[in-house]
Design brief:
This protein is mainly alpha-helical. It has a domain of about 160 residues: Tetracycline Repressor, domain 2 (Orthogonal Bundle). It contains 10 helices and 2 strands. It has a two-stranded antiparallel ribbon. Helix 1 crosses helix 4 and helix 5 runs parallel beside helix 10.
Length: about 230
């Protein structure tokens, strides 16, 4: 599941079962879209009694909506952890860190492809779900704001616009990977580098006066080595 590792001991047994059901639903959506969701399919994937589905979710539509909400919440937590774990006063933020963060975000497409596909299914689903659309837009803005903050520390002249551009490139490459699984993370990094250089400008190439991310490049390298990309 996308997101930081959770200490499930802090959840009640009912909360753990509900989470299990939602994560099973997300995997099914990522594999076959919302149309693949049935109570029986989710119960089988979650390995829970069929009656558990209707106990927690009044109908199929509610299950789909709550699964999408769970996906957005978990992704937010994961991104917050990604930023928080790397912060340190010992090293200055530089352009390479921006590329590493974007690459780590994209890495989930290689390690959790069903979850990434589920997010795109969410984008399609909200075209006829106005309330969920508002939640998705708020979720999108929070992601953009977090990345813009790092870009602002680098002295990027227009950090919000730069953030949206980089996130757009990440999404574009994710979509490309759906049709061309051979597209590599290294290819993405090669494409992204000149774009980030242009957006960030010379201020961020050598570093800035702000606290930045440590070990992100090492973490990205370890993830690439582990996944073989």
């Amino acid at each position: 599941m996308i997101g930081p590792e959770h200490d499930t001991r802090r959840f009640t047994s009912a909360e753990r079962r509900r989470r299990t059901i939602l994560e099973a639903a997300i995997r099914i959506i990522g594999e076959g879209g919302p149309d693949a969701i049935t109570h029986r399919a989710v119960a089988a994937r979650a390995q829970v009694p069929l009656g558990s589905i209707t106990y927690y979710f009044e109908n199929r539509d509610r299950l789909i909506v709550e699964a999408f909400r769970h996906l957005m919440a978990e992704t937010r937590l994961w991104l917050a952890a990604l930023a928080g774990e790397g912060k340190s006063p010992r090293r200055k933020l530089n352009l390479q860190d921006v590329i590493d963060v974007a690459s780590l975000v994209l890495q989930r497409e290689f390690t959790e492809p069903a979850n990434v596909r589920a997010e795109y299914e969410l984008m399609l689903y909200i075209t006829h779900a106005p309330s969920l659309r508002r939640e998705f837009l708020a979720y999108q803005r929070s992601i953009e704001a977090g990345f813009a903050q790092a870009l602002e520390l680098l002295g990027t002249p227009r950090p919000t616009e730069a953030s949206r551009t980089i996130i757009g490139l990440v999404r574009s490459f994710e979509l490309e990977r759906f049709v061309d699984p051979e597209a590599s993370l290294e290819d993405f990094r090669r494409r992204l580098t000149p774009v980030v250089e242009a957006l960030v400008g010379s201020q961020g190439v050598a570093g800035s006066n702000s606290t930045g991310f440590t070990t992100l490049q090492d973490r990205a390298a370890r993830k690439r080595a582990h996944s073989g990309v």
